Amino acid sequence: MSAAPEAGRSAVLPVGGPGAAGAPWSSGVRRRADGEVEVAGVPVSELAAAHGTPAYVLDEADFRARARAYRTAFESAFAEVGAGVDVYYAGKALLTVAVARWATQEGLRVDTASGGELAVALRAGVPGAAIGLHGNNKSDAEILAALDAGVGRLIVDSLVEIERVADLAASRGVVAPVMVRVTTGVHAGGHEYISTAHEDQKFGLSVNAGPDGGTSPALAALEAVVARPELDLLGIHSHIGSQILEPSGFEAAARVVLQLRADLATRTGALVEEVDLGGGYGIAYLPGEEPLEPAPVAVSVAQAVAAVSRELGTPLPRFSIEPGRAVVGPAGLTLYTVGTVKPVTVSAPAEDPGAGATFTRLYVSVDGGMSDNIRPALYGADYHAEVVGRASAAGTVLARVVGKHCESGDVVVHEVMLPADVRAGDLLAVPATGAYGRSMASNYNGLTRPPVVAVADGASRVLVRRETLEDLLGLDLG
Ligand SMILES: *Cc1c(COP(=O)(O)O)cnc(C)c1O
């Protein structure tokens, strides 16, 4: 995100337009002198003509650069304190065969959260040893598929699962490499983290003892793994949240996990070799937002774990992390075509300073919506949008970008300034949709899911094709 808007054009570009510093676009996005935006050298009008809209557009070089940046930042910060580290790309953010290959080629491993994601990673040729399998309710078929693929680790999530994995490993005559997912009480997301003693959620096993003050569920699970010869206890796993913009939560969780590791060693003599600190590294969604940069967070987490290890007197384990959003989120944008544009007169709510006054909000409908990006409806997530097919000399107006679904909550961007002359046929792009867009997409209202199109070096290619009505009807057996 380097080049400033073209000289002389900035007056007609929205604030934070593609190419402007601090804007949440991938590094290959530029606005040309004629006002049209291009991605890695391909104009958006060409992308729309070749692939239709809506389309998910991925900037391959940007994805690869972010994957490399996470790997090199963590490798060098952890080498500094004498520890090794592996970076797993969290496939749930977006997994396609090509994306899994890019991650692998950049030296990352791949995390999967189901048999389906595992199948994509294997189809991509990711070696089993470089794949992890997560999930709080893995089926026997998923566990067996992972064992047969020789995955590097299964992250187990409950006592019953420990017994099931051990039994299934015995049935195959193999030893299953496992990590135990624990809950540290540390929750993060946004700027702050909070710490609670007891957790009311489905993932992991608590490091805190129950009301009777006995062994914590986490320690009991680790001991249960040690007790089964069909299981090889690799280590302890912790994932504290998502869209985290400040490193202190990772440091706090690492402290708890290293303490647990030392406690297990005291009780059983087993000093586990690996600790995974999960994902959740935050990105910029809006102009002016500051993402978490990999280098400083890597340094602060590495320094924190080194200090804790010294206090505990235990040698450092090998670490791993699992960024998903931070690798693929900013690399993607969604390209839409504008349809209906409708001014709606709105009264300012009673609690607002200008209560009762009316203003106009321009509702700009696009050809997708909550089926291709559920995050605004699901989490109230905010996004940015710009008209990308042309320049506009018109002033800007307050707009809301909405989809075409039969839901008033079908919002793509709650609030954004768009050119007052935005009209049907305009191409509109929403940046930072690479993560949890396609991977959470649905067929709501019978919409067909958009393609994933990769752009690199002035050329585009389809990674996942657009669904067709035949795809939809083919599932319906009548
Ligand atoms: C979701 C998840 C991740 C990735 O989270 P991001 O916010 O995309 O980085 C990593 N590890 C686990 C266990 C997860 O559930």
Automatic annotation (TrEMBL):
UniProt-listed InterPro entries: Ala_racemase/Decarboxylase_C (IPR009006), DAP_deCOOHase_LysA (IPR002986), De-COase2_C (IPR022643), De-COase2_CS (IPR022657), De-COase2_N (IPR022644), De-COase2_pyr-phos_BS (IPR022653), Orn/DAP/Arg_de-COase (IPR000183), PLP-binding_barrel (IPR029066)
Keyword annotations: Amino-acid biosynthesis, Decarboxylase, Lyase, Lysine biosynthesis, Pyridoxal phosphate
Binding annotation for pyridoxal 5'-phosphate: 280, 322-325, 436
Keyword Amino-acid biosynthesis attributed: yes
Binding site for substrate: 325, 375, 379, 407, 436
Pathways per UniProt: Amino-acid biosynthesis; L-lysine biosynthesis via DAP pathway; L-lysine from DL-2,6-diaminopimelate: step 1/1
Domain Orn/DAP/Arg decarboxylase 2 C-terminal stretches: 330-434
Annotated positions of the N6-(pyridoxal phosphate)lysine modification: 92
UniProt xrefs under Pfam families: Orn_Arg_deC_N, Orn_DAP_Arg_deC
SUPFAM superfamilies found in the cross-reference section: Alanine racemase C-terminal domain-like (SSF50621), PLP-binding barrel (SSF51419)
Top-level division of the source organism's lineage: Bacteria
Cofactor: pyridoxal 5'-phosphate
Record field: transmembrane: none
Residue stretches making up the Orn/DAP/Arg decarboxylase 2 N-terminal domain: 66-328
Known catalytic reactions: meso-2,6-diaminopimelate + H(+) = L-lysine + CO2
PROSITE patterns: ODR_DC_2_1, ODR_DC_2_2
Catalytic EC class: lyase
Assigned EC number: 4.1.1.20
HAMAP family: LysA
Function: Specifically catalyzes the decarboxylation of meso-diaminopimelate (meso-DAP) to L-lysine.
Family: Belongs to the Orn/Lys/Arg decarboxylase class-II family. LysA subfamily.
Subunit structure: Homodimer.
Identification of the protein by name: Diaminopimelate decarboxylase
